[in-house]
Amino acid sequence: MQEVKTICTAFGISPTAITPITQGLINQTYKVTDAGGDAFIVQQINTRIFQQPQQVQQNFVQLRAVLKHYYRMPELIPTAQNELMHTHGNEVWRCFTYMQDSYTPTGAISEELAYTTANCFGEYTRVLSAASPKLHTILPRFHDVSLRAEQLLQAKAGATPERLKLAARCLNELDNYDELLKRYKYWAAHPQYFPQRILHHDAKPSNILFNNKTQSVLCPIDLDTTQTGLCFSDLGDMIRSMVPSHEENEVRFADIEVRQSFLQALTEGYMDATHTLWTAQEKEALAYSGKMLLYMQAMRFLADFLNNDIYYQTKYELHNLDRTINQLTVLRQL
């Protein structure tokens, strides 16, 4: 913890307690308390993923300027030199106020939580799209389905014969969903019908802070991936992660089912918040949100398998292939 103490001094904090926060897969995060009882979040930014951390921080400033009128938001704490972040060797750190009496949901997701999550991120997009803050693009082409199809073709061309043989059935099945790729290309080519919207791009219950006492939404968090994109991304991602009865690492494929009640809760929650935002063409496109994200993620897992598992962490040799089969199992039922 000595390093974290050193980091704290750059933000003018003299910590008396430092507690690691284990939630979150990307950034290293600590809760820090000073002698006066004030609490802060001190976080190392993962610069392997977020290669322009200054732009991430500048985006947060722009986003908070809009969102503070609608949510109780954490404040960004500048360094003693009034910088948005602190560089310590090869590491980049930032600091926020800690939101007292708050929590992020863990464990099983209910239909009520699914509705609330979708409604929250729908409201987030509606508010930000109306305000149109100028944001940096943090992850270029992140949900670009055409790019993922191209990457799969490249991975296929460079794959070993052994892995290519193992992947053959999944490759053939993905070919059957060429209609989704054509649909995406149409959306991307017609911005007059499918304009760029400001989306969170990591919409899930654990990226919302709730009030401990009232259980109401305080604010969305982990805003680093927020950027413009097409309408399907956030709803599709929530459908992909919350509608299946089992998560993406499940290998008992026969047990995986689509939970229609969760699909309805997510769709209603999102549309209740955003129905005034979309064009008529976007409203039609949103019906394909879940299919599009499942199709894209299946291609990403399979491309990584064919590339010998260079991107996603794996626990066994066929892990990415099994993830692909998992996603296709859900896609077939949707």
Provide key terms for this protein.
14% strand, alpha+beta, Aminoglycoside 3'-phosphotransferase, Chain: A, domain 2, 45% helix, Phosphorylase Kinase, domain 1, 334 residues, 5-stranded antiparallel β-sheet, 2 domains, 3-stranded antiparallel β-sheet
Overview of the structural elements:
GO terms for molecular function: transferase activity. Residues 18-247 form the Aminoglycoside phosphotransferase domain. The protein is of the alpha+beta class and 334 residues long. Strands 1-2-3-5-4 form a five-stranded antiparallel sheet, with helices on one face. It has helices spanning 2-10, 53-67, 111-131, 145-158, 161-175, 178-189, 233-242, 260-274, 280-285, 289-306, 319-333, and strands at 15-21, 28-34, 39-45, 86-88, 91-97, 102-103, 197-199, 208-211, 217-220, 227-229. It is globular, with a radius of gyration of 21 Å. The protein is built from eleven helices and ten strands. Helix 5 runs antiparallel to helix 10.
